[in-house]
Design a protein that fits this description.
The chain has six helices and no strands. The protein is mostly helical and 101 residues long.
């Protein structure tokens, strides 16, 4: 787990802050203050790549729709196959809640 190297009070504080958010509007406000636009775009792109990979889309389709590089797609695929199951956890919960784009 890559984040194990960063484990500490500051990272725990960040995660607790994220867990305290209760609405999408609160998330907008927090991430607006916390991240640059490009950082948020990168995070949202990775999540969309993960969703599309889980649905069986090809690299070409994913690249065409998300503008993600093949390196990003490959890294997300590696996480889906060999990572900590974080994408599967979140996307599975979103599927269960009938999340729609």
């Amino acid at each position: 787990m890559q984040l194990e190297k960063l484990k500490g009070d500051e990272l725990k504080q960040l995660f607790q802050a994220m867990l305290s958010l209760q609405t999408v509007e609160e998330c907008y406000a927090f991430f607006n203050d916390l991240c640059t636009v490009n950082e948020v775009k990168a995070l949202t792109q990775r999540l969309e790549v993960a969703r599309m990979l889980r649905e069986g889309h090809t690299y070409f389709d994913i690249q065409d729709e998300t503008n993600a590089s093949t390196a990003t797609i490959s890294r997300v695929k590696t996480c889906l196959n060999y990572g900590s199951s974080g994408y599967d956890l979140v996307l599975g919960r979103m599927d269960a809640e009938e999340y729609t784009k």
